[in-house]
TrEMBL record:
A single active site specifically recognizes both ATP and CTP and is responsible for their addition. The gene is cca. CTP binds at residues 8, 11, 91, 137, 140. Mg(2+) binds at residues 21, 23. GO terms for molecular function: CCA tRNA nucleotidyltransferase activity; hydrolase activity. Comprises two domains: an N-terminal domain containing the nucleotidyltransferase activity and a C-terminal HD domain associated with both phosphodiesterase and phosphatase activities. It comes from Piscinibacterium candidicorallinum. Magnesium is required for nucleotidyltransferase activity. It holds the Pfam family PolyA_pol_RNAbd. This is Multifunctional CCA protein. Residues 226-327 form the HD domain. PANTHER family: MULTIFUNCTIONAL CCA PROTEIN.
């Protein structure tokens, strides 16, 4: 039995990056031997075992064979005769196809170290084309490793995979898993630019793909192109260290601009409601979790009003808070404001602008929260509509006083 550290942990150590999780490959062993040594089996598709002390994953060396479309269509083969080199040959990129033995000796049969030095993602073999998830992983890695490029031959292979329909076989849950992880990387725009470059974005997120080439008013958007703006917004959300729901809301906020009638461009009248409708379609298709879905729909529909709130009177501010359900869900509202701040900063030359709307609306929310709804309701017992109207008016008065607006 020989044990090797493999994959991302080897890559990251060579790059001088933190190593959080380590993966191991075991050569020359059987499942029975692993269990006998105290390892606990956990792999459903192929033999993976947890170390009895560290709980790290140890996988038996394996090969694989494509049997049908998509990423589920594989048959895995493991036995003590499978070599380390055969196991490494099935991996996606050369920088992930390196191993290290117990003495620290590097095993690099595919030139991964050279590609690390060149800051380049290059596929190990044409077997890369058998797994469409690898396109998503490439895009996600591009968002994480912001100084890397894609080898031209690898990008060409991704284009061929898209043309062959491999991406269409991906299940929604896996698409969402990779997209959500990519959104949380250092420069999420690079994920979408990579998907767009190989044609996968048009298949996976046609609503997002449609934004490139759509003009906007230059006085509001010096960058003009809606797709360029969206990429700037996503990167602004990363600089603001926004959590996933806010970053997803940024992705959804302007989808309606891709369906603006040509005769009113570069204005985008009514794009908010169109954005809500398209965002709902994306969420349904990808089975997006509720926290991301709810915030995405909220920001899509209200970001224009949030941006304009500094000109609102007290009544309009209260109506905005109530539409956003901010009084019941203040934390979600704060995330909406964070997404809107990223939107405001995702414009050419405005990356460091102060977003006064955030403080203004939080002050209004604090004032509205200060209204004693119970005391107001006690004055209108048995009259639900009168209670609602009285609470609403009390909130308007409180916001007018706190925010110094009419």
């Amino acid at each position: 039995m020989r044990i090797y550290q493999v994959g991302g942990s080897v890559r990251d150590a060579l790059l001088g990056r933190p190593v959080n999780d380590r993966d191991w490959v075991v050569v020359g062993a059987t499942p029975k031997q692993m269990i006998g040594a105290g390892y606990r089996p956990v792999g459903a598709d192929f033999p993976v075992f947890l170390h009895p002390e560290t709980q790290e994953e140890f996988a038996l060396a394996r090969t694989e064979r494509k049997t049908s479309a998509g990423y589920h269509g594989f048959v895995f083969h493991t036995d003590p005769g499978v070599t380390l080199e055969e196991d490494l040959a099935r991996r996606d990129f050369t920088v992930n196809a390196m191993a290290q033995d117990a003495d620290g000796q590097l095993i690099d049969p595919h030139g991964g170290q050279a590609d690390l030095a060149a800051r380049r993602f290059r596929h190990v073999s044409d077997a890369f084309a058998e797994d469409p998830v690898r396109i998503l992983r490439l895009a996600r890695f591009m968002a994480r490793f912001t100084d890397f490029s894609v080898a031209p031959e690898t990008l060409d292979l991704c284009r061929h995979m898209v043309a062959a329909g491999e991406v269409d076989a991906l299940v929604p849950e896996r698409v969402w898993q990779e997209l959500s992880r990519g959104l949380m990387e250092a420069q999420p725009s690079r994920m979408f630019e990579t998907l767009r470059a190989c044609g996968a974005l048009r298949r996976l997120l046609p609503e997002v793909h449609a934004l490139w080439g759509v003009p906007q008013r230059a006085d509001y958007h010096p960058e003009v192109d809606t797709g360029v703006h969206l990429m700037m917004v996503l990167d602004a959300s990363a600089r603001l260290d926004a959590p996933l729901p806010a970053r997803f809301a940024c992705l959804m906020h302007d989808l309606g601009k891709g369906t603006t009638p040509a005769d009113i461009l570069p204005r985008h009248i009514g794009h908010e409601q169109r954005s809500v409708d398209l965002a709902r379609r994306v969420c349904d298709r990808l089975k997006v979790p509720n926290d991301c879905r709810e915030l995405g729909l909220l920001v899509a529909g209200e970001h224009g009003n949030i941006h304009a709130c500094l000109s609102f009177g007290a009544a309009a501010l209260v109506r905005l808070l109530e539409r956003c359900d901010a009084l019941r869900k203040p934390q979600r509202f704060e995330l909406a404001l964070l997404a809107c701040e990223a939107d405001a900063r995702g414009r050419l030359g405005m990356e460091d602008r102060v977003y006064a709307q955030r403080e203004h609306l939080l002050r209004a929310l604090h004032a509205a929260h200060g209204v004693d709804a119970g005391a107001v309701a006690a004055l209108h017992q048995g009259k639900p509509q009168a209670i609602r109207d009285a609470i609403h008016e009390a909130r308007i008065r409180a916001v007018a006083d706190q925010c110094k607006v009419a």
